[in-house]
Design brief:
alpha/beta; Rossmann fold; Four Helix Bundle (Hemerythrin (Met), subunit A); 3 domains; four-stranded parallel sheet; four-stranded antiparallel sheet; 16 helices; 49% helix; elongated
């Protein structure tokens, strides 16, 4: 099946053609581990998780690499503030990061390299660039010569001469060119360091990803991704240093996700308008946050608000209510046969879902396909189907939502488990009240039964009486 994706390098959609048949090598820039992850990280992680999942759904063998930057000025400064070792702080926040990603049903990457485990390779990388004339050492630092890479600016669309004209010129700067960027930084007093041919120091940020990508995936990869804020300078610099060494295309496709906006401003710590994933999950189910991300195309800015989060929760509630109805649908011998409608339902979903996802991973249209299935399925249920149709509806619904869970990473629970997870009171309390109501009805104390129903409603619980007994749902 053909997949088209938007390539930032060419600013257009292109058909995906892998370097190696049936395989995908994908590198996505990870986080700098000095704090808890925020919903911007969550949005990006969900986007690339779904991209990876869809490639796997289409039969590709995906090697997905996402790194950790575990030595950086921010890490060092935060550790000093906390009076703890920088390495311990980094490991602590790697663990916290993984817990946050797990909570959003994000599959663990194939590889999660840490920058500090590749220092020797980074030193060697610098030496190779110096030997080729693309880099130079001065006073313990190593810089990349942007003038040595003629295509510098090709990803971001920036012109080197224009950048030079706008650059700040510092006569005391050690760099040959104001635009040259650090590959290796000489150590300052009290900072972590590693021994190198240029003295004690540590790697620059940009070289970390080039080295880890090359070490795990090779010098040329299928897809490189990250947030839009990484296009320049990070990804631009990665291209320059990687292609200067390999003399081949670093990545065939560049994918970038849009920002998360709060009140129409980009979410950022500098504006103090950011929310951690843990903050948000205190007020909603994690599937609701994931669905909120999926309801906006990954390349578009996502406007976050509690109202939109409530909309996502209500949307999930509608789907789970449908699943609950399907699970408990009762057919009859004299019911309506709707075998054709059920077959059309399955074929319609596959066609619409795959069409959406194959067109630059259009998750909003894929989600719309789910709601069309809910509409059709509810029509079948309302028609009072025969036994065969009822069973066929259950099978087809299970088939469809297995795909939804596998690719989009939502609808991972049974309807009953979803309702239990959304209870605002203990399950035991709900079950006790339902049992008391059943006893009241048995004793024909309908006034008491009605008061218990009202009490449950106040607690956000709806009860449904059936010939098989009473079950409950949460009210969104």
């Amino acid at each position: 099946m053909s997949i088209s994706l938007y390539n930032t390098m060419t600013n257009k959609k292109e058909e995906f053609k892998p370097i190696n048949e049936g395989k995908v090598g994908m590198y996505v820039c990870g986080v700098t581990v000095y704090d808890y992850t925020h919903i911007g990280h969550g949005r990006s992680s969900v986007a690339f998780d779904v991209i990876r999942r869809y490639f796997e759904y289409c039969g590709y063998d995906v090697t997905f690499v996402k790194n950790f930057t575990d030595v950086d000025d921010k890490i060092i400064n935060r550790a000093n503030e906390n009076k703890e070792l920088w390495s311990e702080l980094a490991l602590r926040f790697i663990k916290e990061h993984d817990e946050d990603m797990d909570s959003l049903y994000i599959k663990r990457p194939t590889y999660t390299p840490m920058a500090t485990k590749y220092i020797e390779k980074m030193i060697n990388y610098c030496e190779r660039l110096i030997e080729k004339g693309n880099a130079y050492a001065v006073d313990g630092d190593v810089y990349f010569r942007v003038n040595s890479f003629k295509e510098y600016g090709k990803l971001s669309g920036r012109n080197l001469d224009d950048m030079m004209a706008g650059a700040r010129v510092d006569v005391n700067d050690k760099k040959e060119n104001p635009l040259d960027f650090a590959l290796w930084k000489g150590a300052k007093e009290g900072e972590p360091f590693w021994e190198s041919p240029w003295g004690k120091g540590r790697p620059g940020w940009h070289i970390e990803c080039s080295v880890m990508s090359e070490a795990i995936l090779g010098s040329s990869i299928d897809i490189h991704g990250g947030g839009q804020d990484l296009i320049f300078p990070h990804h631009e610099n990665e291209i320059a240093q990687s292609e200067a060494i390999s003399c081949t295309t670093f990545a065939n496709y560049w994918i970038h996700n849009g920002f998360v906006n709060i009140n129409k401003e980009k979410m950022s710590k500098s504006l103090n308008n950011f929310f951690t994933i843990r903050d948000i999950l205190k007020i909603c189910h994690s599937e609701a946050l994931r669905l909120l991300f999926l309801m906006t195309h990954y390349r578009q800015p996502l406007e976050y608000s509690e109202d939109k989060l409530k909309e996502a929760t209500s949307a999930l509630q509608r789907i789970y209510t449908f699943l609950d109805e399907v699970e408990h649908v009762q057919g009859s011998k004299k019911g309506k046969n709707m075998e054709k409608e059920i077959c059309d339902m399955k074929e319609h979903f596959i066609k619409e879902f795959e069409s959406a996802m194959s067109d630059d991973f259009n998750t909003p249209k894929a989600v719309a396909a789910i709601f069309e299935i809910v509409r059709i399925g509810n029509t079948v249920i309302a028609s009072k189907p025969d036994n065969e149709t009822a069973e066929r509806l259950k099978d087809v619904t299970a088939f469809i939502f297995n795909i939804v869970s596998k690719v989009l990473g939502i609808m991972n629970h049974s309807a009953k488990d979803w309702y239990i997870s959304n209870l605002k009171v203990p399950l035991e309390e709900v079950e006790s009240l339902i049992a008391k109501r059943a006893e009241a009805r048995k004793n024909k104390d309908f006034a008491l039964a009605d008061s218990i129903r009202a009490e449950l409603t106040e607690k956000g619980v709806e009860i449904i009486d059936t010939i098989d007994g009473t079950r409950f749902r949460t009210i969104s």
